[in-house]
Write a structure and sequence with these properties.
Two copies of one chain form a homodimer.
Chain A: H1 5-18, H2 27-34, H3 38-50, E1 54-56, E2 62-64, H4 66-89, H5 98-104, H6 110-119, E3 145-146, E4 155-161, H7 166-175, E5 182-188, E6 195-199, E7 204-207, H8 209-212, E8 215-219
Antiparallel strand pairs in A: 1-2, 3-8, 4-5, 4-8, 5-6, 6-7
Bound molecules: manganese (II) ion (4 copies).
The structure holds a DNA duplex (30 and 30 nucleotides).
Chain lengths: 220, 220
DNA sequence: AAAAAAATTTAGGCTAGGCTAAATTTTTTA
DNA sequence: TAAAAAATTTAGCCTAGCCTAAATTTTTTT
């Protein structure tokens, strides 16, 4: 049977909150992420467990079953492919596409997804640097580090963001930081952990700890 | 306030059933088109009237208000633009796109529609020959005639279909009839009104009355 | 112009997915 | 380790969109 829009959202959120270790997700965390109340979450968890999509024991938190994981990954695949479409083909900014993709990800047709993937040239990453699961459902999270873990003097490449909020992405735009940018850490301020960095060998600027915490980078 | 998926479908269907004269649409006709029961339709009509989207007096049938017409035309615009995208960009057949567009037409963002329209090069017609409303909401139905009204000896151009069912479209594919094809009526069988026609000056074939009734054509 | 038939609306219910308030269980703190 | 706090579940309600059965209105036939 088909899963509803709402069920798909729960599964996707459980996947995200579960992290790469697939740990238990709490009712309250889900209530927060779905912008509903804990009581409503409990109702839905019972339904998802009934359908075999999650492992749920009262008071114990939930994890995805293999089947639930599959569904979640399909939704993530669609979300990220649509984001690529919106940015690459329609000319949206990376700060504008999340909400629209949030709707498009629930359009059913398998064949649509595969034709879209083909049209886009089988992209591996979405506009925020997040990996796109392949048609078989394989999702490999590259292990990037956070900019706060980079030492003074190191040069790294910007590979993704942890925060997807438009305001954060726009802040990066104004700072001239984008996917692929080379970031050299020149200095770290002892007092507030802000960093002085140079972008692509050009402009130098200060980055707050808050920003550093949300930048995913890779040693080169 | 935003209109729901269901409300949008009602408005679109009322628009279609209302025809170019904007005549009253009956409860039963809506029940048939929405695949629901008359009682359910009545409920929804009261809600749409409440919102000022339709003119509704008990037992009298409904028409769209100006506001309702606007909403309906926006949905139609989205539906047809997405169909163009699916056929032109993703390579779907014209027989495969209706159901998918039926979902895509409810994705909200105005800006998405305009960017999509731009990406597609502002198409005037969808893959079935139906006119696409412009961004301002102008929808002009070209006045094509039905193939049954064409006399023997006339040559006409195929411009659209009345039936959008996949089986009908596939039948046309097998017959080599597509948008733009030139159809010359060679003979009309007195008994069953089937026609003998020649397509694009090449292949000759028989067309049943049922098919003729659903082909929109234009004198050249 | 009745009477019969058809169309439509009303009444009363159901499910999905929400909510608040109260009860229960688990976790933390003293 | 008992009490307090936090987390979670249960109970009871609500709205959107459906449904069936019964009542009402309109239309068609006699
Ligand atoms: Mn996103
Ligand atoms: Mn993304
Ligand atoms: Mn269609
Ligand atoms: Mn169409």
């Amino acid at each position: 049977m088909q899963n509803s829009f709402t069920e798909e959202n729960y599964l996707k959120i459980i996947h995200a909150l579960s992290g790469r270790d697939g740990g238990e997700v709490s009712t309250n965390a889900l209530a927060e992420s779905t912008a509903t109340r804990a009581a409503s979450v409990t109702d839905m968890l019972r339904k998802l467990a009934e359908k075999g999509l999650i492992n749920y024991k009262k008071y114990q938190g939930v994890t995805l079953t293999e089947q639930g994981e599959k569904v979640a990954i399909k939704v993530i695949r669609k979300h990220r492919l649509w984001e690529v479409f919106l940015v690459e083909k329609l000319g949206f900014g990376w700060d504008e596409v999340h909400d629209i993709a949030e709707e498009l990800e629930h359009i059913p047709s398998e064949i649509l997804v595969e034709k879209l993937d083909n049209f886009l040239g089988h992209p591996r990453f979405d506009p925020h640097g997040d990996p796109i699961p392949d048609a078989k459902g394989n999702l490999t999270e590259p292990d990037y580090k956070v900019l706060t873990d980079v030492h003074v003097g190191e040069k790294v490449r910007m590979m993704g963001v942890l925060d997807h909020a438009p305001s954060f992405l726009q802040h990066l735009d104004r700072s001239g930081i984008k996917l692929g940018s080379v970031i050299e850490v020149k200095e770290i301020n002892e007092y507030d952990k802000s960093a002085s960095v140079q972008i692509d060998g050009g402009q130098s600027l200060f980055i707050s700890l808050e920003v550093s915490k949300n930048l995913l980078v890779q040693r080169r």
